[in-house]
Design goal:
By secondary structure, the chain is α/β, with parallel strands linked by helices. About 45% of the residues lie in helices and about 15% in strands.
C-alpha cells in the first residue's frame, strides 16, 4: 500500500485549504501548519478516513516550529512512507504602501513568513528526511510578483523573489546527492483569495496598481481556490517536477 506524507503550511484557508482537502480526498497523510486550525478540515479528514494533524503556529516564529517539525519527522522515519513532500504555501501581504511608509514590524513580518520560514522549514525537512530512501519533494508557492516589480509591494515582491532564488540554490545542492529532493518554486496564477480582496480594497493613492486587480475580478480572470489547487497538485505530480527549479503553473 502506498502511503504518501505531505506537510503543508497555510492550510487553514484559500488555496492551502483547497490543496489539503484534495490531498485528503486522495487518502494521503497530512500535517497542516497554520496560524489557526480549521475544524471543517478535521471534519473533512474524518469523512475521507484520511490522517490529518493540524498545528497552530505563527510562521513568523519558524525557529520554534523548526525544532518541533524536526522531532516529528524523525519520529516518522520508520513509518514506511512511499514519498514525503513539503509545501511551503503560507504567505502574508504587509500593509500596502510605499516602502518609505512601512514600519520595521511590517517588513519583518513579511520577510519572516514569506522567506525566512520557507527557508528554515525546507532546511529542516531536507535534513530530517535525508536518509529516507523514497522520493522527496519541496514545493514553494511563489508568485508572479516575485518576477515582476510592483509599487507598494516591495516586501512581498522581495520575499517571493528570494523564494525563487533560494529554490534555485537548493536545486543545485540536491542534484549532487544520490537521493536528492526535487524542488520547485511555482507561481500558481491569480487566485480569488483574501489577498486579492486586500489588494482591491487598498488606498488608490498608495497603490497605483489597484485598478488592475479590480479589473482581474470584474473580467472574470481569477481562478477559484479549488481550481488553482488542482492545477498546482497536478504540476506537483508531473514526472518532470523539479526539472526547472522556478516554474509557473501555466507552463
Amino acid at each position: 500500500m502506498n502511503r504518501h506524507l505531505f506537510v503543508i503550511t497555510g492550510a487553514s484557508r484559500g488555496m492551502g485549504l483547497a490543496m489539503a482537502r484534495q490531498l485528503l480526498d486522495q487518502g494521503h497523510t497530512l500535517l497542516c501548519i497554520s496560524r489557526r486550525d480549521n475544524p471543517a478540515l478535521t471534519d473533512h479528514a474524518a469523512r475521507t478516513q484520511a490522517s490529518l494533524t493540524q498545528w497552530t503556529q505563527d510562521l513568523a516564529d519558524s525557529s520554534t516550529l523548526g525544532i518541533r517539525l524536526s522531532e516529528w519527522l524523525t519520529a516518522q522515519s520508520n513509518t514506511g512512507w512511499s514519498s514525503a513532500t513539503l509545501i511551503n504555501n503560507a504567505g502574508v501581504i504587509p500593509r500596502i504602501a510605499p516602502l518609505s511608509e512601512l514600519g520595521s514590524a511590517d517588513i519583518a513580518q513579511a520577510m519572516r513568513v514569506g522567506l525566512e520560514a520557507p527557508m528554515h522549514l525546507t532546511a529542516v525537512f531536507l535534513r530530517a528526511t535525508q536518509t529516507w530512501a523514497v522520493p522527496r519533494k519541496v514545493l514553494n508557492i511563489s508568485s508572479g510578483l516575485g518576477r515582476r516589480a510592483m509599487a507598494s509591494q516591495a516586501a512581498y515582491c522581495a520575499a517571493k523573489a528570494g523564494m525563487d532564488h533560494f529554490t534555485r540554490c537548493v536545486a543545485l545542492e540536491e542534484a549532487l546527492k544520490p537521493n536528492g529532493a526535487k524542488v520547485c518554486s511555482l507561481a500558481p496564477g491569480v487566485i480569488d483569495t483574501d489577498m486579492q480582496v486586500q489588494l482591491r480594497q487598498a488606498d488608490a493613492a498608495s497603490f497605483p496598481d489597484r485598478g488592475s486587480f479590480i479589473g482581474l475580478q470584474s473580467g472574470g480572470q481569477l481562478t477559484s481556490p479549488d481550481d488553482a489547487a488542482a492545477r498546482v497538485l497536478n504540476y506537483l505530480a508531473r514526472s518532470d517536477f523539479g526539472a526547472q527549479p522556478v516554474g509557473d503553473v501555466r507552463d
